[in-house]
Specification:
The structure holds two protein chains of two kinds. Chain A has helices at residues 7-11, 21-33, 37-46, 55-85, 97-103, 126-135, 145-154, 187-191, 208-221, 228-242, 248-259, 262-276, 285-289, 295-308, 321-336, 339-354; strands at 93-96, 117-120, 138-140, 161-163, 169-173, 195-196, 203-205. By secondary structure, chain A is of the alpha/beta class. Chain A has one domain (7-354). Chain A starts with 6 loop residues before the first helix and ends in a 9-residue tail after the last helix. By secondary structure, chain B is an alpha+beta fold. Chain B is 34% helix and 29% strand. In chain B, helix 8 (247-256) runs antiparallel to helix 9 (261-278). The chains are: A alpha/beta, B alpha+beta. At the A-B interface, helix 2 and helix 4 of A face helix 9 of B.
């Protein structure tokens, strides 16, 4: 039995999932691996369905709600700490992804579980930002010189910073895609349209269209699909929220063209419609279709993503899931950097994994 | 139906196919494994545990799989698989049974947020529970094993499951884990003790698990009220002695020994402070098990009045 029980929950958001005990085990497992357990629980709460869930599975939904509650406390605290640490560094601090949904009070915030906080700053301020965060207790755990150089030369972020006491992690970005990527985006263009989250004016989020495009490009670029379904659900929520503004859809399509992110947006919209039955208003479909890559690429990606966006759980795996994930992983790297950089990089990583430097242990 | 009512062929069959489902306290486990030592260990240590009726919800499905590849011919290994992922490093194949026990603890401590869970042994007498939090090496499990064979009832030797509603403790009742010197101590202290074969050279040294008496497994539905918090410490040559410990400090220690105290926020604080308010807190130095048992028996006797 291979069945994605999770995405139908949001495809038919008004229907209470009626599941056998075995199906409850399965959906809880799928939600755990997709990091959607909090969302699943929150969805039941919002619809007043929790009391109707059988006792045993309900305990785990309630447990997830407790965890969400706690994590939201912690994220609020972390954001305040980051604000304080960067108070004297000029230039904006932009929250990205989960932290952005959180501080801006956007719908994907509901029931969301966090692992780290992502921020974006001006590239030329990176040394100052890193210094200020260091003084507040965040240091890089990355000891390996090659990895440090890899991040700093080729990536859109510096190595993750971990707080020495709280062990919380910040990813500091200067743009949303690697500078070597086929979908490279100039961080300055994004910073032109940011908006402050409150009257203090020191904390920002990306413009709605940019937030959507970031989420779309992130989905296909990371190469790790464990969170793919969650990211897609975030996207659907964002679109439904932002489309209340009349100029949102034309603005989004214009912006995709301007930043060269038509293809990621096309794939994302395709799978949002396939999985959740949600589509752009009909007057925009012709224009969105023009964003499609040529037919062979479109069909191959639809197949691979169709498999990879299923929850990464044994109950969902087909004989082709592994191959699809592997192809997408390879593709994500091919998008990140040109082949003359990619091959030496992967060879180097393979070597490092096989023969870890002394004192580093296996990782 | 109990596990002992299945033939060994049937136990092996279930483990290999759809899983053997057993209930340990409030949790149902489905165990899948083709490894012989898993079947043997379960039959030896869990015979009195109820099987989960078909169609009932199972909390955790754990798989202990031998690793593939050519290595299996010269250095066979075992992997714990949960939700399709491997949360732990692979271990030598003969570590399979202790790995199963650790995996089961891991499932509970990372996911059962409907309890406040502490890393502590819990035993009961007269309906009153002793919570024994202690770092590894303090002799907590040895003491626990000794007490359980002398009239105290085991709730759990590793995980205290505390209700968020009334602070009472739910039994888990799984086998008691023993290591190194304590293996011999318990063999001498408990005549006729049933212990699994010893696994050597694990990260904790030589380990094995001791079977819990059948009459205690029958009482896994009976919760107990926390009455004492005792911090045991094995000190060679020391006379068994309880000394009062400050409640504030005991509460801090309990919080530090909890797996999910921080998940529960204010509720966690309130539950812990209720437990501490209702409990006498002691440090407990001991060396001789007989003496240790009689000192703790004294606590229970006083309670009886």
């Amino acid at each position: 039995m291979t069945q994605d029980l999770l995405s139908p929950v949001w495809a038919k958001p008004d229907e209470r999932p009626e599941l056998t005990p075995l199906q409850w085990e399965t959906i809880l497992g799928q939600a755990r691996t997709s990091r959607l357990l909090g969302r699943l629980a929150q969805h039941h709460v919002a619809n007043h369905w929790l009391a109707e869930v059988p006792t045993q599975p309900r305990l785990y939904l309630e447990g997830a709600l407790r965890l969400v509650d706690r994590q939201h406390h912690q994220v609020r605290w972390e954001v305040d700490c980051i604000r304080r640490a960067l108070k004297h560094v000029p230039g904006p601090v932009v929250m990205l992804k989960g932290a952005a949904y959180f501080v801006a009070g956007l719908p994907p915030r509901q029931g969301r579980l966090f692992s780290d906080v992502d921020i974006m700053v001006e590239q030329e301020r990176l040394p100052e930002i890193e210094g200020a965060l260091f003084r507040a207790g965040w240091i890089s755990d990355e000891r390996d010189a090659y990895n440090q150089r890899y991040y700093r030369h080729w990536m859109h972020e510096i190595p993750p910073l971990t707080h020495v006491q709280r062990r919380t992690v910040i990813d500091v970005h200067h743009t949303i895609t690697p500078p070597t990527s086929r979908f490279k985006v100039d961080g300055k263009k994004l910073l032109e349209r940011i908006s402050a989250v409150d009257e203090r004016g020191d904390l920002f989020v990306l413009a709605p269209a940019d937030m959507v495009l970031h989420s779309a490009v992130h989905l296909f670029q990371e190469g790790e699909f464990g969170h793919g379904l969650r990211d897609l659900l975030d996207l659907k929520d964002l679109l439904q929220h932002f489309e209340q503004r009349a100029d949102f859809w034309p603005g989004l399509l214009d912006r995709a063209e301007e930043l060269g992110l038509q293809i990621p947006l096309f794939h994302a919209l395709f799978h949002i419609q396939r999985l959740f039955g949600y589509a752009a208003p009909p007057q925009w479909t012709t224009r969105i279709d023009r964003f499609s890559p040529p037919a062979p690429a479109r069909i191959a990606m639809a197949w691979a993503l169709g498999l990879a966006l299923r929850p990464d759980h044994p109950s969902c795996n087909t004989r082709w899931s592994g191959l699809a994930r592997w192809l997408l992983y390879v593709r994500s790297h091919a998008l990140r950097m040109p082949i003359h950089q990619l091959v030496p990089h992967l060879a180097r990583k393979a070597w490092m994994q096989r023969f870890p430097a002394k004192g580093q242990g296996e990782k | 139906m109990k596990l002992s009512e299945l033939s060994s062929a049937e136990v092996g069959n279930r483990l290999r196919r759809h899983g053997l489902t057993i209930r340990t306290g409030p949790f149902n486990f489905r165990i899948l494994s083709t490894i012989d030592s898993i079947a043997q260990g379960l039959m030896l240590l869990y015979p009195d545990f109820p099987l989960v009726p078909e169609g009932e919800f199972v909390d955790f499905t754990v798989t202990l799989a031998p690793t593939g590849g050519i290595r299996r011919w010269w250095r066979p290994q075992v992997r714990f698989v949960y939700d399709g992922a491997s949360p732990f490093a692979v271990l030598p194949l003969d570590h399979a049974f202790p790995l199963l026990e650790w995996a089961m603890n891991w499932c509970i401590s990372t996911q059962a947020h409907h309890f406040l869970t502490l890393h502590a042994a819990v035993i009961e007498r007269e309906g009153c529970a002793v919570i024994m939090p202690a770092p590894p090496g303090s002799g907590k499990s040895t003491l626990c094993a000794g007490l359980v064979s002398r009239g105290w009832r085991l709730l759990s030797d590793e995980l205290a499951l505390i209700s968020l509603v009334d602070g009472w403790i739910t039994p888990l009742g799984r086998p008691i884990s023993l290591k190194n010197e304590s293996l011999q101590v318990i063999r001498e202290f408990v005549p006729g003790v049933v212990m699994n074969q010893v696994t050597h050279e694990t990260s904790k040294g030589s380990v094995s698990h001791m079977k819990v008496p059948a009459e205690q497994v029958k009482r896994l539905g009976e919760r107990a009220r926390p009455r004492w918090v005792v911090f045991p410490k094995y000190v060679p040559q020391a006379k068994a002695e309880l000394s009062l410990r400050s409640k504030a400090n005991s509460m801090l220690e309990l919080g530090g020994n909890s797996f999910n105290y921080t998940v529960h926020g204010l509720t966690g604080f309130e539950v812990l402070s209720e437990i501490i308010t209702a409990s006498d807190c002691y440090d407990f130095r001991y060396s001789d098990l007989d003496e240790a048992v009689s000192v703790l028996d004294g606590l229970a006797q006083k309670e009886r009045g």
